[in-house]
Amino acid sequence: MTLPEIDNDILKVILISILILIGGFVASIWLFQILKKILKKYKNPAFKRIASIIQYPFKVLVLLVALNFVRVHLQSSILIEGSNFGQLFYILFLTVITWLAISVVKAVKAVIIANYDVGIEDNLKARKIHTQIKVFERIAVVLIVFFTIAMALLSFEAIRQVGVSLLASAGIAGIIIGFAAQKSISMLLAGFQLAITQPIRLDDVVIVEGEWGKVEEITLTFVVVAIWDKRRLVLPVTYFIDTPFQNWTRQTSEILGTVFIYVDYGFPVERLREFMTQSLSENPYWDGKVNVLQVTDCTEKSMELRALASAKDSGTAWDLRVKLREDLIEFIRINYPDYLPQNRLKMEEPKS
């Protein structure tokens, strides 16, 4: 074979490689143009986001396939020798496929949760779906990354040899690792259990550690509760499996607000009932369902009156209670000041 013939072969390979790269780039753009046209037919805006979420990893994957064809042609023409490039392309393929798989998971999540708006009043089902999907997304991403790292490491001969040599002591190593990672494994399992059984959901109102707050974030290992005064309480997921806590929105967001008033025994309770009905009718936080005033206890000094009123959610119930308490106290102060709680003293005449 003469030198010019070799030059011609090399030139052919280079031209073919360039054509493959250009073809891969054009093919990736063309495929996504078709995908965008298909997704435009759907009214759901989440479908339009699918292309933007997965387009970059898909385009990189197509270009990587084209580059691999170029590598094969160059190696066959003795321009590149050795298996190092093959190993490099294998790692790159794993990385891009992982990127694409994670993007697909995120696209599926976006499509599902787009149908469930947590901003509406009756958002119980929406919060349930959001909680499950977000936890499952994190589980899927962790598993994808774990298997990618495992496959990448096993591609190295030295690491495979180490793995084979460790099989003999796998039982002992497994026991040691099991004890060392006991808490981490239990947290991951608790996070999975939390997503399935859902004792809590995103935006649930809970009482934990004596604090009132809303569930702001749920991960595989911890839960963030936003306290009413802007603090954040971070708890391990195992807390909500092992420890009793209050969930005010487990079945519904509606809740009863309670106000306690203490008055003297001679106080006319019926008059306060009438006023409470009038007060609630003008209260913007009342949902119009529950309106009850009862004598719930009595002591040697006073009667205990409990006022119950309903609201659409816990945040509104707080405002309802505050306003109702102010109104009841003001009514008693103005109309029946003599019937506020009093201390009675019995004066005895001295014996002669």
Explain what you see:
This protein has ten helices and eight strands. It is elongated and about 135 Å long. It has 352 residues and is α+β, with helices and mostly antiparallel strands. The termini are far apart. The relative contact order is 0.06. Strand 7 and strand 8 (303-311) form a beta hairpin. The model is unreliable at 1-6 (pLDDT under 50). Helix 4 packs antiparallel against helix 7. It has helices spanning 3-39, 45-76, 84-113, 124-154, 157-166, 170-180, 182-197, 239-242, 269-281, 314-335; strands at 205-208, 211-218, 222-227, 232-236, 246-247, 255-263, 291-298, 303-311. Strands 4-3-2-1-5 form a five-stranded antiparallel β-sheet.
List keywords for this structure.
three-stranded antiparallel sheet
Helix count, DSSP H or I runs of 4 or more residues: 10
Head-to-tail CA distance between termini: 145 Å
- Average pLDDT confidence is 77
Morphology call = elongated
- Tally the beta strands: 8
Q: Describe the strand arrangement of the main beta sheet, using strand numbers.
A: 4-3-2-1-5
Largest sheet properties: 5 strands, antiparallel
Oligomer: single chain
- Structural class by helix and strand composition: alpha+beta
Low-confidence stretches: 1-6
User: What is the string of helix and strand elements?
Assistant: HHHHHHHEEEEHEEHEEH
Radius of gyration, CA atoms, in whole angstroms: 35 Å
Strand percent estimate: 5-15%
| Fraction of residues in H or I helices | 55-70%
Condensed summary:
By secondary structure, this protein is an alpha+beta fold. The protein has ten helices and eight strands.
